[in-house]
Automatic annotation (TrEMBL):
SUPFAM superfamilies: POZ domain. This is BTB domain-containing protein. Pfam families: BTB. Gene3D superfamilies: 6.10.250.3030, Potassium Channel Kv1.1, Chain A. Residues 183-251 form the BTB domain. PROSITE patterns: BTB.
Length: 341
């Protein structure tokens, strides 16, 4: 289960924090303030609760624990009613999303679902443990930690998940990519390779392509466009992602180019794939380049991963790429991050 990049930012009604009234049906975020200090004072702490109208429903708590250089955050939920329930919550603390403007860190990468059997009223239920390194802890200093949750009809969702998965399989358009029956548009790469494609698939995947394919545009009227800055191999990767939701030969793609093109054409799935691939390929030689690209294209997930890697491998700043950082704000952020306060 995926969460949109930072599209589901917390609003006051959706945040569980202290004794603020949050309706169970609206609950989307657990908010933990001063988490940096709490990690250094291991104990049990309250998060807050949800309500059904004015009746208390669920209450969340957490416990902090430190084992060597690993910091553990254990989440618990108390059910105020005697019933069974389901809860989905952020799967792990990897690829934390930093929001400097709001002094916040979000755990939103993916969700894992938990089901709890009918139990006695006000019973404690263990939910999940998040593991943080010392580098992660630096990221949450002076920021609030937001953990995505959902109570949305998990029982019903589980009963039809197999059907939903089958529908997804049936809507993989890979066959149409390699045998473009009914194609009604042509895209040409910068080096002259033409691809026969389908307007409806392009428009459904990208707002940029959707605008390009409106009736009054020259591209729409000619049923043709040449992407003068996209080579054949990059265009193949883009189209495969649009038609199938993935790239089968991802390890051989130029993922820096893919991230740039995903930003230009508003290709969310390609953006996520590129971020993942670049974070997996990070090395001393390319970490600074990835950091620069992530900053240029507002990829906070990838930027955070790069900062963490560079802090752990400070020899990165000895590479020639360090001299190519021409954004003073990024340079300041990097120096502040890698130099202990």
């Amino acid at each position: 289960m995926e969460i949109e990049d930072l599209g589901h930012l917390p609003n006051d009604e959706s945040v569980i924090f202290g004794h603020k009234v949050c309706q169970t049906r609206n609950a989307k975020w657990l908010c933990i303030s001063d988490i940096y200090q709490k990690f250094h004072r291991p104990n049990f702490y309250d998060i807050g609760g949800t309500y059904i109208e004015d009746i208390a429903d669920y209450w969340f708590m957490y416990k902090t624990e430190q084992i060597s250089n690993i910091f553990l955050l254990h989440i618990f939920v108390y059910d105020r009613q005697e019933n069974k329930f389901g809860l989905a919550i952020s799967r792990n603390a990897e690829n934390m999303k930093i929001d400097n403007k709001n002094a916040a860190v979000y755990l939103t990468q993916s969700l894992v679902e938990h089901r709890f059997k009918r139990s006695k009223e006000i019973s404690q239920n263990y939910v999940i443990t998040f593991s943080f390194s010392s580098y992660d802890i630096d990221l949450v200093k002076d920021r609030s930690l937001y953990i995505f949750i959902s109570f949305d009809s998990l029982e019903h969702k589980g009963s039809c998940q197999g059907f939903i998965d089958q529908v997804k399989i049936n809507h993989d358009f890979k066959a149409l990519l390699f045998d473009p029956i009914g194609s009604d548009f042509t895209i040409e790469s910068a080096d002259g390779v033409k691809f026969q494609v389908h307007r409806v698939i392009l428009a459904g995947y990208s707002d940029v392509f959707k605008a390009m394919l409106k009736e009054e545009t020259a591209e729409s009227q000619n049923s043709y466009v040449k992407l003068v800055d996209v080579g054949n191999e990059d265009l193949q990767c883009i189209l495969e992602c649009i038609y199938t939701g993935t790239i089968s030969n991802l390890e051989n793609c130029n993922c820096i180019n893919m991230l740039m093109l995903a930003d230009r054409y508003n290709l969310k799935g390609l953006r996520e794939l590129s971020q993942y691939a670049l974070s997996e390929r990070m090395s001393v030689e390319n970490a600074l380049e990835i950091l620069i690209v992530a900053d240029s294209y507002n990829s906070e997930t990838l930027k955070t991963a790069a900062l963490k890697f560079i802090k752990k491998n400070t020899m990165c700043i000895q590479t020639s790429t360090f001299k190519e950082i021409n954004n003073p704000e990024l340079l300041r952020h990097l120096c502040e991050y890698i130099i202990p306060s």
